[in-house]
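Aim 2, interim progress. The first record below pairs a target sequence with its structure tokens.
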Amino acid sequence: MTPMVTTSTMRWWHSRICCYFLTFVVVAALGLMSVAIGTRTVPWGDIWAGLSGNLETIGQAAVAKRIPRTLLAAIAGAALGLSGAIMQGVTRNPLADPGILGVNMGAALAVVIGVAWFGMAGAQSYVWAAVVGAGATAIFVYAIGSLGRSGATPLKLALAGAATSVAFSSLILAIVLPRNDIAGGIRTWQIGGVGGATFESIQLVWPFLLIGFFISLLSARKLNALALGDELATGMGENVALARAMAALGAILLCGATTAVCGPIGFVGLVVPHVCRLLVGVDHRWLLPFSALTGAGLLLMADIVGRIIARPSELDVGIVTAFVGAPVFIWIVRRQRVREL
């Protein structure tokens, strides 16, 4: 029996390592495509020269401008994919997602209030406002979804998040419409995109993202325990409330920082964890880093598609991910059978 177990274990490790390696290769290829594809077609010679820092030709200058955009798309996609996996693990809700639970819209509302009512202008202020807004919204949605005898069921959380997202979106419109001085910029930012990326904006959110990634990945074992149920997790020595709070904190930091620099981008955190579970299983020690890697690839691909289908203009990634995510959301609801949620 021992050789059979050993062989099975080796195959298990081999299949997951292959998934990681192949996904990494795909993400790297998408990164190169993101640098090469745009309004102007850039030859490979200019791409390598531009990556080296040369700015002698228009093509090399275009590459230099696309590098921060590519980097931001990869980082934002990784953050959203990882935060989605965390939220689904914390709530044990297959429909959990920063967009569906209203967390992204709460972060956006906090930024809009800061800009419109308090004259907030610095990008650093945007990040703090977005993180606070995301945290407050997460607490609010969980509190509303916990009302009633059955507690925070997946369906109640999804409904509470959807209602909160719609309400916050209406509030944003009510705040922005009378303010012609900020309306154009806010509406563009609210779609969700990476077109205006700069190294300076990435540096501002990098500390929040780094802390969020660190906390989230450290929560993997605790999320495995929570997946067994609160009673079993408590019997295993876990502090259930603390475990949920720490994992949620990591997801909130990731969502808030990403929303501050990119705007609210939906459905990445919903689609990515479900795909990743099919490939590497439900163990969060494998699932969380793989969700980050796959999320980076998805947002890079969405950004590339948005540039190709709308040439010489482009579609923001928030629009592209909505086209991809909405059918997946419907499929998940039908697969899970709403009455059982």
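The second target in this work package is listed in the same format:
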Amino acid sequence: MLKFPLNRRQALIGLGAAGTMLSFGLPARAAAKVNLGVIRLASHAPSFIAFERGYYKDEGLDVDLKFFEAAQPMAVAIASGDADYGVTAMSGGLISLAGKGAVKVIGGALTEEKGIVGAIILASNKAYEAGLTSPKELAGRSFGITTTGSSFHFMVYKIAQANGIPLDQITLRPLQKVGAVVGALSSGQIDAWAIQPSIGKMMIAEGHARQIGLFSDYAPDYQVTTVFTSTRNAADEREKTQAFIRAYSKAVDDYNAAFVDKTADAAEVDDVAKIVHKYVEADLPFETARNNLLEGSQRINKGLALSLNSVTEQLEWFKSEGMVKEDITPEMLFDTSYVKTI
């Protein structure tokens, strides 16, 4: 086939024709539709920041937010295709679905870090007054969790292990939703709980609970939440998945600068806080919600880096407790090709 080199004038005419064709409405590539699983917690702030600031759109993604009350239902939605990406804690349900080839963890998000107030261990007022003033005294007490096999379940295991308390000496109370655990602790129906500082500090300030410890004393490198998707997305939708990670990571930088490192100026802090307030603690006055974010935010890993040691420890614990099958390997659960591992 003969090829004819274009002179400068012909090249300019060609470029002009291409521009004319575009101006007459040749369709651009449609934005990729994405359903993102979220929970109305401050730890999900980057989900909302990226949505409101157009970071997803900038990456060619048309994102809808799909709200959940707990981690396990979100994992089921990812596996079934009702949601494309999720950011939540590892759970027995998520791991089991990975064992069936349905989902993959592709990144890390919220993390415990020494020097930053992380999850707070709380006692109800009733239990505190009866002597529960330290995690060392949890034997014979009740502890709130959302579901069996949730991150709260793993956290109470780590607390018990560090204090030499057999886990079966603590009564676990699965209450399904975070709001239900808040209510049960506030009313003294359960004795203890461990929760993110944005909620824990608010409960303390309102006189509904007492602080008896910090979870970072027991697991300073705990990978609290992870980013996950379907195995099909991880394997076959690489460009879309990378675009999602880029958009989310940009929002993570905004969140950390405003609330964790506190390097953003006051106007930026207010702007980011207003975005989050639309979705989290929307029933509170803005100034209260803003202060909760400033006083109670944990770091989210830059670039959604994944703490492989922490998540592998969690996998092994779930297996040791018989909550997931013994033959599930890290390779079945984690796709480490998308982000840095730490």
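The longest helix spans residues 238-260. This observation will shape the mutagenesis plan for the next reporting period.
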